[in-house]
Amino acid sequence: MYIGIDDTDSRDHYCTTYVGTILQEELEKTYLMDTPKLIRMNPMVKYKTRGNGGVCLRIIEDEKKLNESEIESIKKLVIKTVEKFSDFDCENTNPGIVFLSEENYQKNQKTLLNYYNSVLYDILKVEYSEKILNEIGAEYIKYKKGHGIIGALGAIASKPPFTYELLAYRKSEKWGTEREIDIDSIIKMDTDTFPFTFNNIDGKKSIITPHTPCPVLYGIRGISREILEKAKNTVKSDELDKCQVYITNQGTDVHLRFSKINDIYPDTGVISYGKIVENPKEITGGHVLFKMKDDTGEIDCIAYEPTKEFRNIVRKLNCGDLVGVYGTVREDPFEINIEKLKIVTLQKIYEKNKFCECGGTLKAKGLKSGYKCNICGKRVNYDQIKLNEVKRDIKEGFYEVPPSARRHLSKPLVLYDFDLENIR
After folding, report:
1. What value does the mean pLDDT of the chain take?
2. Which pLDDT tens digit goes with each residue over 151-175?
3. Coil, strand or helix: which one is 142?
4. 257-346+392-406 and 163-248 share a CATH fold
5. Which of 66, 114, 202, 379 is 20 to 30 A off residue 42, Cα-Cα?
């Protein structure tokens, strides 16, 4: 039996993963439970409360099928818990619950995969999700506008690649207070476990702690349960109330797909290759912008100010460079927000050699007169002047924004050498 939950939290209260953790703890007292999932969806959704993530719990029924009485009891527990830990007073909090049997899950694999792709790439309507839920024989509950059923089904429908996140929760009396966590221990944890854990720090700044007053104390992301347990034991913090490891699609780039420029539309994630046709320029706010073109069209690509030093890489690009841009697409202005950049080939750049053999400098004397040395007086025609190749202060390869500017779903370059398809 699959249970999907989403959109219970707000920027001021609760966390959907906390609901999942409470239910996981309670259900595993009686049933064999799979590892819960925390699944992020299209980050461009405008009505999201925080990270646009739903959770999925699964009761394993390999040996013993659930009877009707057990199913009803489970549903009541889920509903009671969701209603207790949802911020119904927040306008943007619209919880949803989905129940799907193991049989219907197995019978509808293609539909679920298509839905998962849609919830990653597009902005879905509640009505569309209801249509799919009815098609696959799921039961669902909507609260208020019911947006939560979109992500609840998305969490159930999710497929590899995956990573893990260990979420540590603080005691309820600490909610809303400043988190007590030792930064030196986080740096040590990162030193001891990187790259098997990732996105822990940016310089000497911790990025494992939320900025909201929610129950989460910290979250550590990694590629194995064992490394996460080691990482947790290194971190010094407030006393923990609960701790739960989630399987997650964070750090996998599943929100991005290859697209020709002409096929790109707003509020989706793309990987697009083309040649730079307008040199990078800085615009108001400290953002850096360039124009890219392929055989179907052209589009602006932007590195926003929060990407900090990454903008220096973008500034060094030049017309003619062939690049791949990884990122999400804004509607107004229509542009790609760069998350990663792959420089495929660098255009060779030449400059005129204006130095004479005698050591003097060649000065332009007009269109017909060419150049004249300011020391020996030697004249050189425009078409005779030598060209020197300019050494580019940048190399071909991948570049990424700093950890503090990354989306939940963005795949760090350090994970490119790991097989994330076999994490279940």
Report:
1. 95
2. 999 999 999 999 999 999 999 999 9
3. strand
4. no
5. 202
Does the pLDDT of residue 233 top 90, yes or no? yes
DSSP 31-83: S-BPPPEEEE--TT-TT-SSS-EEEEEEB--SSSPPPHHHHHHHHHHHHHHHH
In whole angstroms, what is the distance from residue 18 CA to residue 168 CA? 10
Q: What predicted TM-score, i.e. pTM, was given to this entire model?
A: 0.93
At 280-306, the pLDDT tens digits run 999 999 999 999 999 999 999 999 999
The answer to whether the CB of 101 falls within 8 A of the CB of 75 is no
Per CATH, the number for 2-157 is 3.30.70.2200
DSSP-assigned beta bridge partners for residue 219: 167
Distance of CA 85 to the CA centre of its chain: 26
Q: pLDDT tier at 107 (50, 70, 90 boundaries)?
A: very high
Residues 178/217, Cβ–Cβ less than 8 Å: no
Size (the chain), residues: 424
Pairing of strands 240-248, 37-40: parallel
The token pair that represents 36 in the structure block: 């819960």
Q: How confident is the model at residue 250 (pLDDT cuts 50, 70, 90)?
A: very high
Q: Is the pLDDT of residue 106 over 70?
A: yes
Q: What 8-state DSSP symbol labels residue 34?
A: P
Q: How deeply is 106 buried, as exposed, middle or buried, from its count of CB atoms within 10 A (0-12, 13-18, 19+)?
A: exposed
Whether 318 has a pLDDT exceeding 90, the answer reads: yes
pLDDT at 59: 97
In CATH, 257-346+392-406 is 4.10.240.10: no
What letters, b where the CB count within 10 A reaches 16 and e where it falls short, cover 151-165?
bbbbbbbbeebbbbb
Structure tokens at 123: 């902005």
In degrees and rounded to multiples of 5, residue 33 shows phi and psi of -110, 140
Enumerate the domain spans of the chain. Answer: 2-157, 163-248, 257-346+392-406, 349-390
Region 163-248: CATH code: 3.90.600.20
Query: How many Cα neighbours within 13 Å face the side chain of 325?
Result: 34
C-alpha torsion 175→180→183→186, nearest 10:
-60
Residues 97, 7 contacting (CB under 8 angstroms): no
Exposure b/e, 177-208, CB count within 10 A at least 16 = b: eebebeeeebbebbeebbebbbbbbeeeebbb
Taking a C-beta distance cutoff of 8 angstroms, is the pair 159, 113 a contact? Answer: yes
